[in-house]
Inverse folding.
């Protein structure tokens, strides 16, 4: 079992930045096991479907982003701290949503498919004011 907890959300003005973090814990995420998980961020705005934001495989070079990211967001992982992070810059009001991290044991196969992931966090609210 893997337990994911997000942090770093909040209220920010348009054009501002936030850094989200997701910490993994549990016996299945301990030691070197965490490095074998593919990780991702999704978001869900009120009244909308959950949508893919970014994913990272075992290596920092294996990253995938939604088209709307357009260089504004960067996903990274720290296997020593068992965390996956999302640096968000140049935020827009349309980025307002609950952001959740997700994990699956193994390599990335379908990074944008939420059915790919076995573990989910509860989410952290990001609100961008205009």
């Amino acid at each position: 079992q893997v337990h994911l907890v997000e942090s770093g959300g909040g209220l920010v003005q348009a054009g501002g930045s936030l850094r989200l973090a997701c910490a993994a814990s549990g016996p299945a995420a301990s030691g070197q096991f965490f490095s074998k998980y593919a990780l991702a961020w999704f978001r869900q705005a009120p009244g909308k479907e959950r949508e893919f934001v970014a994913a990272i495989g075992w290596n920092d070079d294996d990253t995938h982003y939604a088209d709307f990211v357009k260089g504004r967001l960067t996903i990274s992982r720290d296997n020593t701290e068992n965390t996956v992070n999302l640096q968000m810059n140049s935020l827009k009001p349309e980025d307002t949503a609950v952001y959740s991290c997700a994990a699956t044991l193994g390599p990335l196969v379908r990074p944008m498919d939420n059915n790919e992931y076995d573990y989910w966090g509860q989410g952290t609210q990001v609100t961008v004011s205009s």
